[in-house]
Each structure stands twice: as C-alpha cells, then as structure tokens.
Amino acid sequence: MKKFNNPIIAGFYPDPSICRVGEDFYLATSTFSYYPGVPIFHSRDLVNWQQIGHVLDRPSQLDLTGLRHSEGIFAPTLRYHDGVFYMITTNVGNGGNFVVTATDPKGPWSDPYWLPSAPGIDPSLFFDEDGKAYYCGTRGVENEAYYGDNEIYLQEFDLKTMSLIGPTKSLWRGALRNAIWAEAPHIYKKDDWYYLLIAEGGTAHHHAVTIARSRNIAGPYEGNHGNPILTHRHLGKDYPIVNVGHADITDDPNGNWWMVALGSRPRGGYYRNLGRETFLMPVVWEDDWPVVSPGTGKVEWSYPVPELPEFRVEKDPIFDDFNSENLGLVWNFLRTPLDEFWSLTDRPGFLRLQLKDDKMESRKTPSFVGRRQQHHSFIATCAMEFEALSTHEEAGLVALQSDEYYYRLVITQSANGQVVQLISVVDGQEKLVAEQPISGKRVFLRISAQDQCYNFFYGNKEDDLEELYLNADGRILSTDVAGGFVGTYLGMYASGNGSQSKNYADFDWFRYEGE
Asked: Which of 130, 227, 286, 317 lies at a C-alpha separation of 20 to 30 Å from 463?
C-alpha cells in the first residue's frame, strides 16, 4: 500500500486553511512579517502541493511597516463561494481584520476590504445554504478571569457591502474549563449539524483541536465529550511531532474527510527551528462527530495515500541562477519593500542588492531576500561578487530566526583589509564569533546544518571552501529561544549598517539542498 509522509508542506507554513473546488484543493498559510503574504498552494491529491502564488503580493494589500517579526499576517482562512475565492485574515499591528477576493486563486486578488468593527484575530467565513454569510472570530472577553480568557463569536457578513451587519453572538469559550486562547474557529455544516472547530491551549506544547456542534448556527453549542479531538500535549516533549493544532477540514470528491493542522518537529531537545509546518490526517465520522487519525488519535509520520489521482508537481528549485524576470515564489522579503533595493535587470543573471543603511534588527525593510529552512540537515551556498568600501559595509548570507536572533556570514572591510566574519546576534547583542582575511571580489559562502550544529564556510573556489566556524549553536534559531511564531530563513543580505552607501552586492546564484 502506497503511503505519503508528513509534513505535507515542510518548513514555516503554519495555520493551514484548506478548501475544495470540484477536484481541486487550495491551501493557504500564515506569513507574519514576511512579504509577499499568504502563499497559496494547489493540489488534486492532498499530498503533493504546488505553490501557485501569494494572495498579498502588492504593497496596497499588505503594509508591514515597523512591525515586529511575529506581528503581521495571522491565520488566514481560505473559502470558495459562488465562483469567488475569499481569503480573510488579520494584519496584527497594522490594520486588523480584512478580506480579499479573487475569481482565480492565482490572482490577482483584490485590495483589502477592512473590517474595523471586528475585534480580535483568526477570522473565518461561513456560507450557509440559505444564502447568508457569517464572520466567525476570536476575541477577548469582558472581565477577563485569567490570561488567555477568549471566546469565539459570530456576526452576519454582507457579501454585497463586504461588511459586518447585525449584532454579535458569543458562541463558545473552549472545551476545557479555563481553556486559554480559544481561537482559530471554523464553521462547517454536515447532516443538519453546524460544527465549530477551534484551537485552544496556546500554540506551544499544550496546543489542541476541539469541536462543538449545534442545530442552530447561533448556538447553543455542545462540546464533544471526547475533546480534544487532536493534541500531542500528553505525549511529552520528547515526542518527534509536537504542538499540534490550528486545524481545518475538508471532504474529497470520494466523500472521504481530511484534516490539515500545524505541528513542529523539534531537534536537539525541545527546540523548533523550522517553525510550525503543515500536516495531513484522515478523518472519519462516528455518531455525528469527526474522529481524527482513527486508531491512534495522533498525527502519524505516514498514512495510506488518498484514493485520488496522483498530482504531479514541480518541486521547489534547489538552484536559482537569477536569470528569470521575477523572483521565484520561494523568496521573501522581511516586511513590505517600499523602495527598489533589489534588481534582476541591473546586471542580468545576477540578483543585485543595494546596501541600505537598515540593519536586520531595524524593524524596517533590510536589503534581504530569503527562503525558508525546510530541513534539519541542509546546505545553503551562494556565489557573490562584492567589495566592501568601508568598515560599515557588509554583504553575505544570514540565518535568520528573528530581529534579535540570527547569524550573519558576511564580507566586510577591516583595518587590515577585506575579511569574512561570522557574527551571532542573541537577544539583540552582537558578537564577533570568527574572522579571517579573504581576497578577491568573487566569493562563495556556505551555511550548513545537522540538527542544532550550524557550520559556516567561505572561499574563492566553490570546490575548495575553508571552514570559518563549526558547530555553532543552532538553538538560537529556534522559537523556543527566540520566542515568536516564525521559522528560520536563509537568505542574502547587504547593509551599510546605519551609513548611507551607493555600493551593492551581486549574487550570481543561490543553492539550497536539504535532506
């Protein structure tokens, strides 16, 4: 029997939301302070997914100016109704809740319809059989009794004006007494029952998926006596898949049901460098309740493949020579790029990064183009042409967890000439870890890792790289040390470190190999 392996989408792709249109499935995930926002994937077999674009790929849709690393786009919900795709989400720290629409999931998507009267986060849309639409979200409660005292609420949504109408209705505060962070609500209708699926327990180790049902969309909702219907918090922190939660469900054309949920794969102890990833589990219905991963009740590494035609996809390229007209979909910026600091045309065949004065920790948009770390064992290499003209100027590679936790492998100028440096930043404090002289304008830089051991190399010939520093502590690139909600990025970087510069770095190619 052929099986598929979890996660179905590896690396920092959290809070998955899924919808089906005929034989096609579409899936979206959170992006926080990275731009473009909300990658959208397509599949026909639920196992093999092809990214087809980003929902939020214009500055008019997504302003991330000044936001912290783990602010920005939280928890999108993707739905389809009467020929229109809807994506609803929250820009935390810069605008709140909004919805965008498209007739083609590849785009273009509309500019936001803002919902200023909607408090809280994690919005979802539900389209009922009578033609009415509803907004379902998470909000704090009055007279909060404890930290994380939240509730799920409902309000009618006018599809003509794209606005909320009528009163709000409190639906549920979670399955467990004093449950924290009742969030991530989705409503479904099946066999005359309305089902309210949520997450609770926080998005760390105690994360869980719970469910309630009602004959009336406005409630009252009764919780499943078997709640939570999915969690790994009882399995201990040594279990290889942890913090499972924030789920969405769909049926397939054969009438079978499936759940997507986030989870993490720690390494070297309870340290999660890859962030929260997307996993897939089968669902069956018993006594009008969903049973997730029947027989085990937990997320397994593999399951029998769905009985659907295989969907062949093009794998993400491991090598980018920057010869295309646009950056590939794997690449992201940190916050919205409001100025033209990068180019694929100034020198065809190269990615040119201008040396902005912004640093990685500036909460602006540094001259950085990165991709997700998707494997615990990887090798990332680039070929770069750059000559630092002052001690302020630098360019190279970055392994980035957040504004305050990262490694920089860069070429810069010292009093004794050009050097390659490894700099660690921990809790916002820089430390020079290693330095060696290097000559020549064309250099090769490499970052590799095996679990929590990160290694840094440099040289003028790719087949003869020298060790700069081995076994650097990778735990600083985990959310468990850095905090927040994102995963590690690997990318190209150029900076004047607070000084204006007309200099630039040219990157000939970038290669990422994972296993």
From this structure: 317
**Segment 281-304, tens digit of pLDDT:** 999 999 999 999 999 999 999 999
67 vs 484: CA distance, rounded Å: 13
From residue 312, alpha-carbon distances to 49, 274, 290 in Å are: 9, 25, 30
Integer Cα distance of 359 and 368 in angstroms: 10
Q: Is the pLDDT of residue 499 over 90?
A: no
Contacts of 164 (CB under 8 A, 6+ apart): 115, 117, 118, 135, 155, 156, 157, 158
Nearest alpha carbon to residue 331 among 16, 109, 32, 35:
35
Cα-Cα-Cα-Cα dihedral sign, residues 490, 321, 109, 85: negative
Of the candidates 369, 400, 319, 458, the one whose C-alpha atom is nearest the C-alpha of residue 35 is 369
- In degrees, rounded to 5, the angle at the alpha carbon of residue 154 between the alpha carbons of residues 149 and 155 is 135
Over 90: is that where the pLDDT of 361 sits?
no
Partners of 64 in the β-ladder = none
481's enclosing H/E stretch is helix 479-482
Question: Under a CB-based contact definition with an 8 Å cutoff, are residues 335 and 70 in contact?
Answer: no
CA dihedral 478, 480, 483, 487 (to 10 degrees): 30
Tokens of 336: 């919205």
Distance, in Å, from the CA atom of 82 to the CA atom of 418, rounded to the nearest integer, reads 61
d(CA 137, CA 156): 12
Specify whether domain 319-514 bears CATH 3.30.70.260: no
The token pair at 246 is: 């924030």
CA separation for the pair 503, 496 (Å, rounded)? 9
Our CA dihedral for 464, 470, 471, 474, rounded to 10 degrees, sits at -80
Torsion of CA 112, 116, 121, 127, to 10 degrees: -70
The answer to whether residue 57 is catalytic is no
Given the residues 45, 183, 394, 403, the one annotated as active site: 183
The secondary element (H helix, E strand) that includes residue 137 is strand 133-140
**3-state SS track over 22-68:** CCEEEEECCCECEECEEEEEEECCCCCCEEEEEEECCCCCCCCCCCC
Question: Would you say the pTM of this structure is higher than 0.85?
Answer: yes
Tens of pLDDT, residue by residue over 423-480, are 999 999 999 999 999 999 999 999 999 999 999 999 999 999 999 999 999 999 999 9
Spatial CB neighbours of 68, under 8 Å, sequence gap ≥ 6:
33, 93, 363, 403, 484
183 part of the active site = yes
Residues of the chain with CATH 2.115.10.20: 3-304
Q: Give the DSSP letter of residue 229.
A: S
| Whether residue 78 has pLDDT greater than 90 | yes
Which two three-digit tokens encode residue 258?
Answer: 């499936």
